[in-house]
Design goal:
2 domains; binds iron/sulfur cluster; 5-stranded mixed beta sheet; alpha+beta; binds FE2/S2 (inorganic) cluster; Ubiquitin-like (UB roll)
């Protein structure tokens, strides 16, 4: 059992119905071993700020709801332990590059809309079979392996928050959409692998949308450029 300590959170707050601009407030809370940044927000809500708003759901890094700027870097609050930050303070702010709905809640609507426009699933070439399938669409383990990684995006928005291209080009589709462009719907390998290669190379004129490893590099850079949200 580790020792219970206190930790101070700096939280960027903004209520569009009340505040002219975002502002910071600090809250000191107990920090038991293993506490995540998300756990801390719940404790702040319980002890100090019942109106504090953020998104979260699964608490296990699956739903993608809790993306926020943690100590200046985009990440998942439920997947980040306070102790791992190795800092006496924790700052949390909404993801940059998105409008703020309230407090730590970004408006991810534009990202989702662009995602839908890209039709993020595999589309069969043979229209007749697609419209009136005569059997199952098989895929081999090898075919699945070629594009499975691209289906893992949970649309947390962290890469977009760290992306200087998205900060200056609202039409940029983003890496998460290209990861989603391939789907797990069983279909022919040729089509699937072509889409997978497209994801890996990116789209001319839209920067490189590449592998998950690159996504994490974006997040580690922690760009704080803001396009729509004010400081
Ligand atoms: S690609 Fe972007 S939106 Fe998708 S999980 Fe990774 S950081 Fe989140
Ligand atoms: S609450 Fe679902 S990813 Fe964090």
């Amino acid at each position: 059992m580790g020792e219970m300590k206190n930790v101070t959170y700096g939280v960027r707050l903004y209520d569009p119905n009340r505040d002219a601009a975002p502002h910071w407030e600090t809250f000191t809370i107990p920090c038991p071993p293993g506490m995540t940044v998300l756990d801390g927000l719940w404790k702040i809500k319980e002890l100090h700020a019942p109106g504090l708003a953020w998104r979260s759901s699964c608490r296990m890094g699956v739903c993608g709801s809790c993306g926020m700027l943690i100590n200046g870097r985009p990440g998942l609050a439920c997947n980040t332990q306070v102790a791992d930050l190795k800092s006496p303070t924790v700052t949390v702010a909404p993801l940059p590059n998105f409008a703020i709905i309230r407090d730590l809640v970004p408006d991810l609507g534009p990202m989702i809309e662009r995602h839908q426009e890209l039709r993020p699933y595999i589309i069969r070439d043979d229209i007749a079979e697609r419209e009136n399938p005569t059997g199952e669409f098989f895929q081999s383990a090898h075919e699945l392996e070629q594009y499975l990684q691209f289906s893992y995006c949970i649309k947390c928005g962290s890469c977009m928050a760290a992306c200087p291209t998205y900060a200056t080009d609202p039409d940029y589709s983003g890496r998460c959409r290209w990861r989603r462009r391939t789907a797990t719907t069983p279909t022919r390998a040729t089509r699937a692998s072509r889409r997978a290669r497209t994801c890996s190379r990116g789209v001319p004129g839209h920067g490189a949308a590449t592998s998950p490893a690159s996504a994490r590099r974006c997040a580690r850079r922690g760009s704080t450029r803001r396009r729509r949200s004010s400081s």
